[in-house]
Amino acid sequence: MATAAAGALGLLWGWLWSERFWLPQNVSWADFEGQGDDYGYPRARHILSVFPLAAGVFSVRLLFERFIAKPCALHVGIQDSGPYQAQPNAILEKVFMSITKYPDEKRLEGLSKQLDWDVRKIQCWFRHRRNQDKPPTLTKFCESMWRFTFYLCIFCYGIRFLWSSPWFWDTRQCWHSYPYQPLTSGLYYYYIMELAFYWSLMFSQFTDIKRKDFLIMFVHHLATIGLITFSYINNMVRVGTLVLCLHDVSDFLLEAAKLANYAKYQRLCDTLFVIFSAVFVVTRLGIYPFWILNTTLFESWEMIGPYPSWWLFNSLLLVLQVLHVIWSYLIARIAFKALIRGKVSKDDRSDVESSSEEEDITTSTKGPCGRSSSNGANRVNGHMGGSYWAEE
């Protein structure tokens, strides 16, 4: 049994690292050995350094949110306080936990008779109880500020690195002499840091604020990690840097719009959202398919020809394009609603945690129903009051 298991494991391992899968014809792993510089060609073992680095990125994030993002949030007037706590009531709590969080009119009338409360008071209790499960604005601000800072820094590094790279100006250079393209230190650090960041997002997604597009984001992170990993192992890192930089340019704009929204700088928020929408559509529906997919599908076919991992790499890129189309549709819906209503009232990719539309326009109170909260987490405010911004 042990021998058979070892043999099966050996076959699986051989298939996993098969040269026929990963490399073009007449190329072997031995061709990448014996390089004289520190980095040589990309190797699969380099990926192992990502996991401790991802843990380090997550630790830096915790420190950043505690000592930088939180003081910034307090400085712009976001208070360190949660929503109003609903009055303890065993009967209503049982209904809330076991039956429904959104009682209909018939159930409200029955509870009104049972408790001798008016219906409006019971509705107010359920609203407060639902709001208890939502994270405060301070938490959302800190999360967004971390993402904004990373995306902005990595984009600046990426554009500075690519500006002096020949494949930034001529995408056919991505495939010139492929796969014998040595790995530079700048390219290595850029790739490994991006991969570590997305692994940290993959893990933290289960502890961060749960958003309505959780499943889409999970698929996005998987596709991104798969793309970065596969492109690194088979040395498609040149075109990979173009994909990374293209995505980072709109990501930090979205996080900036969210920060302005949480801080209630509504004109700034509206302006940033318009800029983000334009950049997103141009880069994801214009530059990405006509520049990136063009070189990975057609120029590479012409210069190096297809092979198994080439098909997988391009399949992941196409999955990413499908997600771009979905998000562009959601952004277009927001823009359309803005034209109809004269304001941006709600992000359809909202980070509201399983709540109804009611919470998006409901005042979070610190006292009796009707008085606004001190932190204004759900307050209707200006052009974008009550809106929640999702991670791209």
TrEMBL record:
<keyword id="KW-0808">Transferase</keyword>
<dbReference type="InterPro" id="IPR001356">
    <property type="entry name" value="HD"/>
</dbReference>
<dbReference type="GO" id="GO:0005634">
    <property type="term" value="C:nucleus"/>
</dbReference>
<dbReference type="InterPro" id="IPR009057">
    <property type="entry name" value="Homeodomain-like_sf"/>
</dbReference>
<keyword id="KW-0472">Membrane</keyword>
<feature type="transmembrane region" description="Helical">
    <location>
        <begin position="188"/>
        <end position="207"/>
    </location>
</feature>
<keyword id="KW-1133">Transmembrane helix</keyword>
<dbReference type="GO" id="GO:0050291">
    <property type="term" value="F:sphingosine N-acyltransferase activity"/>
</dbReference>
<keyword id="KW-0256">Endoplasmic reticulum</keyword>
<feature type="compositionally biased region" description="Polar residues">
    <location>
        <begin position="362"/>
        <end position="378"/>
    </location>
</feature>
<protein>
    <submittedName>
        <fullName>Ceramide synthase 5 isoform X1</fullName>
    </submittedName>
</protein>
<dbReference type="Pfam" id="PF00046">
    <property type="entry name" value="Homeodomain"/>
</dbReference>
<dbReference type="GO" id="GO:0003677">
    <property type="term" value="F:DNA binding"/>
</dbReference>
<feature type="region of interest" description="Disordered">
    <location>
        <begin position="350"/>
        <end position="392"/>
    </location>
</feature>
<feature type="domain" description="TLC">
    <location>
        <begin position="139"/>
        <end position="340"/>
    </location>
</feature>
<feature type="DNA-binding region" description="Homeobox">
    <location>
        <begin position="94"/>
        <end position="137"/>
    </location>
</feature>
<keyword id="KW-0444">Lipid biosynthesis</keyword>
<comment type="pathway">
    <text>Sphingolipid metabolism.</text>
</comment>
<feature type="transmembrane region" description="Helical">
    <location>
        <begin position="148"/>
        <end position="168"/>
    </location>
</feature>
<dbReference type="GO" id="GO:0046513">
    <property type="term" value="P:ceramide biosynthetic process"/>
</dbReference>
<keyword id="KW-0443">Lipid metabolism</keyword>
<dbReference type="InterPro" id="IPR016439">
    <property type="entry name" value="Lag1/Lac1-like"/>
</dbReference>
<feature type="transmembrane region" description="Helical">
    <location>
        <begin position="311"/>
        <end position="336"/>
    </location>
</feature>
<dbReference type="Pfam" id="PF03798">
    <property type="entry name" value="TRAM_LAG1_CLN8"/>
</dbReference>
<comment type="pathway">
    <text>Lipid metabolism; sphingolipid metabolism.</text>
</comment>
<keyword id="KW-0371">Homeobox</keyword>
<feature type="transmembrane region" description="Helical">
    <location>
        <begin position="214"/>
        <end position="233"/>
    </location>
</feature>
<keyword id="KW-0238">DNA-binding</keyword>
<feature type="domain" description="Homeobox">
    <location>
        <begin position="92"/>
        <end position="136"/>
    </location>
</feature>
<dbReference type="GO" id="GO:0005789">
    <property type="term" value="C:endoplasmic reticulum membrane"/>
</dbReference>
<keyword id="KW-0539">Nucleus</keyword>
<dbReference type="InterPro" id="IPR006634">
    <property type="entry name" value="TLC-dom"/>
</dbReference>
<feature type="transmembrane region" description="Helical">
    <location>
        <begin position="272"/>
        <end position="291"/>
    </location>
</feature>
<keyword id="KW-0812">Transmembrane</keyword>
